[in-house]
Structures are given as C-alpha cells and as structure tokens.
Amino acid sequence: MAQYDVADRSAIVTGAVGTTIRIFSGSDARRNIRRRGEDLRANAVVLDSGRVLGPGEIGILAATGHATVLVHRRPRIAILANGDELVDLDRFEEVVAGRKIVNSNTYALAAAVAAAGGEPIPLGIAPDDLEEIRARLVLGRDADAILTTAGASVGQHDLVKDALLELGFELDFWRVRMRPGSPFSFGRLGGVPVFGIAGNPVSVLVTFEVLVRPAIRRMLGRRDVHACTIRVRAAERIPGAGRLTHFPRVRLESDGDGGYTAQ
C-alpha cells in the first residue's frame, strides 16, 4: 500500500489504480470560509473623516457601494520669493559668474507643498521694490495660503513686511524660538494665512516641516497633521542652541539592532 500526504497532489493524480491514500491530519470544516460581516459589520463606520484615500480605501468605498464621497480639495499655496540678488534657472549663467543667486527656495517649497498634499502656485521673484512686492502679494490673495521667502530676516532690504502691512496684513507674531528658522512670521491677509520664511535654504525646509506642513494637512482635513518621529541615539555630543528649540542636521545610520544612530 502506497502512502501519500494529502498535500502531495501530484502523487494523487499519478497514482496507480487501487492506490490507497491515507490522510494524516483531521479535517476542519471551519477553515477557508469567509463569513458574512467578517471584514465589515452592518452599520459600522467604513472610513473615518480625515483619512487619506489610497488604493485600499477606494476599494472599500467601491465594495460598499459608494460611487461618490465628499473630500477636501487640495489647498492652493502661493509662493513668493523676494530679493534683487535672486534669478531663475533661465539666468543661471549669472549665478555661475558670481553675480546672482539661483532661486532654489521656490522649487524646494513647491516640491514640499506638493508632497504635503497642496497645489503650489509660484508667484515668481519680486525684486526689492515695495510696489512690485505688493502687486505680487495681491495675486496671491485668491490662494488658500501664501508663503514668502527671503524677506523675513532682519535687514534694510526686507520689504515684504512693509508691503503686507500696507495691504492690511494682520500680524500674529514675527519670530519663533527655534533654530534654524527663527526669523519666521505669521499673520493673515484678508483672511488668507501668510507664512514668512527666512531665505536660508536650510531654514526654509526646516520651517516648512515644523510649521507649514501641519497647517496644510489641517486644510486637507487630516487628523495626523504632524510627521511621525523616531528616537535615535546620538553618536556624539550635539551642541544645543540655548533657549531655542534646535533642529540640528544629522545623518541617520542603522545600528544593527533595529534602531538608528545620529551622526
């Protein structure tokens, strides 16, 4: 008598006539059965508000017969760069010659806005001219928020604040206790939030991550407005910034035990 494991289907198919099959495991009538209500019970909430709709969520909506659903539209975020020294990429030869600085902040902010779920609306580069700055800010009034960069630091050529105040800007605060990004302003222009970000490229991205991205996520109706955080071990002493909240630049490396070390 030949003996085969019931899982060996090839043996069953090719076995000779009269072959005996011995089953070594007991059958379970409850296995491989999907019962009604196992995934979703009647009257259960399928998706909470504030949830990002990905492939799985859209599949659930279709499976439960929801052809349409109310969603938040992507907020339109206007971005204005300011400074006589700034040029766009079509004048990069002036950057190479050492006469100008490329307007990298607008590109970085546009990418950050898109990654956060917003729609970037570049307003271009405003020179250090009060009327020019004011005219471009007026164009941003139809947006859901305005980001300005390079005009938030202390200096005689920083005219963005003056232009905003002339347009009826309501200033909430002008500086924050953080580094980098201390020269940061926030207020409203006709009800539109305005974020004033310093021109340093590192300050731009740190400030956006800490203060602007959560606002965009809130506009999207999300509940998880803050980015996730992880705990790491410092490989060496990291100098502080006094009474300021410090966001130092580090490189994370795996420590081999499932954690990370900050270099």
Give an overview of the whole structure.
GO terms for molecular function: metal ion binding; molybdopterin molybdotransferase activity. Pathway: Cofactor biosynthesis; molybdopterin biosynthesis. Residues 78-218 form the MoaB/Mog domain. This is molybdopterin molybdotransferase. This protein is an alpha/beta fold. Among the domains are: 76-219, Molybdenum Cofactor Biosythetic Enzyme, Chain A (3-Layer(aba) Sandwich), CATH 3.40.980; 230-263, no CATH class. The protein is built from seven helices and 13 strands. The chain has a six-stranded mixed sheet with strand order 4-1-5-9-8-6, sandwiched between helices. Strands 10-13-12 form a three-stranded mixed sheet, with no helix packed on it. Strand 8 and strand 9 form a beta hairpin. Helix 4 (104-116) runs parallel beside helix 7 (201-219) and helix 5 (130-139) packs across helix 6. The mean pLDDT is 85.
